[in-house]
UniProtKB/TrEMBL annotation:
Keywords: Activator, DNA-binding, Repressor, Transcription, Transcription regulation. It comes from Phyllobacterium phragmitis. This is AraC family transcriptional regulator. It holds the Pfam family HTH_18. The lineage of its organism: Bacteria, Pseudomonadati, Pseudomonadota, Alphaproteobacteria, Hyphomicrobiales. One of its GO terms (molecular function) is sequence-specific DNA binding.
Amino acid sequence: MHMQRLAVSVFDPDLTSLPAVAHRLDFVEHEAEVPLHVHRKGQLILALHGAVTCTADNEIWIVPPNCGVWIPGGVPHSARATANARLNYLFVEPGAANLPEDCCTLSVSPMIREMVDRLARERADYLADSHAARLARVVLDELAEMPRERFNLPISCNPKIRAIADALTSEPSDRSTLCDWATRVAMSERTLARLLIRETGLTFGRWRQQLHLIVALRELASGATVQNVAAELGYDSVNAFITMFKKALGSTPAQYFAQRRATLLTVPKRALKE
């Protein structure tokens, strides 16, 4: 039986002090679970196909199409990828670019995606005056201009909120009320409601909806049908799920992914030519 390797065992970004290096990872060849780890370099995670969810800095992050999750250096993080996931990682030396000091989701232009993909084909020990070095510099300059998106779920280090998050992540169709959860974690409903707002900034209803959105994006990106995702999340009908999705992201699931596929097909190829 073929044993798949852990993703963190195949490439160590901290072996180089270059400003930026990139690496492509195909999860057909690796374990879906990436255990908790940390490195000196910051990391941008881009999904070429499929989807990945990351846990870092007391939040769960989804890597949707046309976005990337940015994890600063020194922040412990773990991940779980769908079996069909293909990712590009961009590792950035601390201080090499004007990037956020906290974890976030960054909108990523098609040009940046293509340049990171090109950099992933270069050696990790490229020369300082090489084409790869110039490419890395442009990538970092462009990336610093990208706006933030909101594809994360705050989960807090509070053990009771973490327990609820773990349970709902494992069984997102669970429709237990706030009162039900308060009973399970031995708190009053009012106290739990206040705790959630204080720790996450969201009411229970908004918090669970954000979790559903994260799960939906991950599953739809991996090829699941809208019908199956709606059922997995416990919605009474497909229309109810589509309404939630459209209210959150401004378009139906079909429109959302069609728009992103169209964007990926309009890459400015000349930007990669010298």
